[in-house]
What does this fold into?
Amino acid sequence: MVSGRGSLGDTEKAVQAKLGDLPVRHERMAAVAGIYRAAAAVRQHFENSVLRDAELSWTSFVVLWVVWIRGEGETRRVAEEAGISKGTLTGVARTLQARGLMERKGHPTDGRLALLALTPEGERVMARVFPEFNAEEAFVTEGLSDDEALDLADLLGRIVVQVETRGEDRRLELLDGQDPRPRRSGRRAKG
It folds into this structure.
């Protein structure tokens, strides 16, 4: 994966030097690196501009967006649509609740479930922030024609479908059918 600002050719040479004769699919490496770099750059731009003024992280904006567009929703569905874990949603929702932007209610028929809804203040924040957010969407894609922007959205959507429909089978194949080990935070245990 490419994460720095070196040229693609330089990166390809460096990878090949590390791996010797092992074949590397450079065009696929470049595609994934491009996705990563673009996503990181866009997210950082939004968090340092329009979302900073609203005191929102990217994830908190996405959660607000999902509930704003879809209406009151069960936490499991909101987490899925936002592309985050339920654990992450719990923390984000608590922060948004503390700011008076979101409320959490019990489900009317299933006490194990919770519903999320925007408060009137949350609705006002989204009505103010979304037009600014959309203006930045236009800014970051300014170098593309409308057709190119739609083509890009289609191509990225195909990647999402690939991972969503075949990713679990691929993970099982790579892990010889075993469950993945728990993730490590990178921190060493105290002791």
